[in-house]
Design brief:
With 283 residues, this protein is of the alpha/beta class. The chain has 2 domains: 12-83 and 186-233 and 250-268, D-Maltodextrin-Binding Protein, domain 2; 91-181, Periplasmic binding protein-like II (D-Maltodextrin-Binding Protein, domain 2, 3-Layer(aba) Sandwich), CATH 3.40.190.10. The protein has 12 helices and 11 strands.
């Protein structure tokens, strides 16, 4: 790989989702592919969102809704996403009431969420439901269950805690979107800052190729990834295997269409102030 773009020997910082759902994409980079000029910064999606906005990261996975909110500053890297086509298990609304009965009730949103929170706000807006929103830490599942009428939980916390024991209703947002649209839902995508891509296209091309090769190796070692996920989450291996079977890390035409529909819906419901078009990095 040509290293002439190392920006005066400065390390390039790239985001990494800290949840197990991104493990297939990062398998190769975690196992020998990572070059010395590239540093991975691991965190939850909401933190990665802010770090790419401020320029602390040049390339990162981010919440798809956050891309829509900042689409003029970012370009999408092709063929990479965290998506589902129906159930997803790790993005859930748990509630003591049905969705339609949540007006005036306390709904806690995970502070780690952006796409899921935007989607749920869109649903509430469409159905003319007006909850009291609270953004907070949902990792202490017993404490939050005592404070809230409903909780939006994403990532590892949604998988490893027994939410069904604490709330009457359990709604999988991937399944809810599929029932509404018959389309996949794209929770996260990989992006590059436009300003960085414009002046470092060869570098971005190499990073993109590294990510694709890393994902390819992850696909080849999915059993190993499932075992690591079992250890991290403390769940039965069969549950972790089911979870990875429901996840998609590509970004095909159908998912792009679904993502554009999501963005258009956010605009139509007033959650976005302007329409967001999807623009890809193309060296």
């Amino acid at each position: 790989m040509n290293a002439s773009y190392q920006m005066n020997d400065k390390t390039i910082h790239m985001g990494k989702i800290s949840y197990v759902n991104a493990s297939p994409v990062y398998y190769g980079l975690d196992n020998g592919l990572l070059p010395d000029w590239l540093k991975m910064v691991s965190d939850v999606p909401s933190v990665l969102n802010q770090k790419i906005k401020t320029g602390q990261l040049k390339v990162s996975p981010i919440s798809s809704a956050f891309y829509a909110m900042n689409h003029k500053e970012l370009l999408v890297l092709p063929d990479l996403s965290i998506s589902c086509n129906g159930r997803v298990l790790s993005v859930i609304l748990v509630s003591n009431y049905t969705i339609d009965d949540l007006s005036g009730k306390k709904v806690v949103f995970s502070q780690e969420s952006a796409s899921s929170a935007s989607f749920l706000k869109m649903i509430f807006h469409q159905r003319k439901i007006f909850p009291d929103y609270i953004v907070g830490d949902v990792n202490n599942f017993k404490k939050v269950s005592e404070l809230a009428d409903a909780v939006l939980v994403i990532g590892d916390a949604a998988l490893k805690h027994p939410w069904g024991q604490l709330f009457k209703h359990h709604i999988d947002l991937g399944q809810l979107w599929f029932e509404m649209t018959n389309l996949p839902f794209v929770f996260a995508i990989w992006v590059v800052r436009r300003s960085f891509a414009n002046s470092n296209s060869d570098c971005v091309k190499d990073i993109h190729n590294l990510l694709l090769e890393s994902k390819n190796r992850g696909d080849q070692h999915i059993d190993e990834i499932i075992k690591a996920g079992k250890t991290k989450l403390g769940l039965e291996q069969s549950i972790v295997k089911e979870y990875f079977n429901l996840l998609y890390c590509d970004l095909d035409d159908k998912k792009i269409r679904a993502m554009q529909l999501f963005f258009d819906s956010l605009f139509d419901q007033g959650i976005l102030s302007e329409r967001a078009d999807i623009h890809f990095f193309n060296p």
